[in-house]
């Protein structure tokens, strides 16, 4: 492959990623509180959560520890568990 074809392929990938980001944003954008106190509808998933009363506050007891762990590990819980398990085996 020549440098020019590699360059065009990279440009095509970047354009494809940019095109795919729009539907992801539309689906996953959260509902936001407006200045007048009302809530905006948000994305499609946010609307479905509000219609089904599936927010954490509506489900019941909220676990702040679980939310803090999700934020601290950036969603990589399995990686964090593997690292902690490996360290525990070293200290054993």
In short:
This protein is mainly α and 92 residues long. It is 67% helix and 0% strand. The chain folds into 2 domains: 1-33 and 40-59, no CATH class; 62-92.
Question: Descriptors for this entry?
Answer:
92 residues, mainly alpha
What does this structure look like?
The protein is mostly helical. It folds into two domains: 1-33 and 40-59, no CATH class; 62-92. The protein contains five helices and no strands. It has helices at residues 3-28, 44-51, 56-59, 64-72, 77-91. It starts with a helix and ends with a helix. The mean pLDDT is 80.
- Helix and strand content put the structural class at mainly alpha
Main beta-sheet strand count, sense and barrel state: none
Question: How many independent structural domains?
Answer: 2
Overall 3D form: flat
Mean pLDDT: 80
Low-confidence stretches: none
Order of helices and strands: HHHHH
CA-based gyration radius: 21 Å
Continuous helix count: 5
Portion of residues within helices: 55-70%
Number of strands: 0
Strand content: under 5%
| End-to-end separation | 52 Å
Question: What's the topology here?
Answer:
Blueprint: H1 3-28, H2 44-51, H3 56-59, H4 64-72, H5 77-91
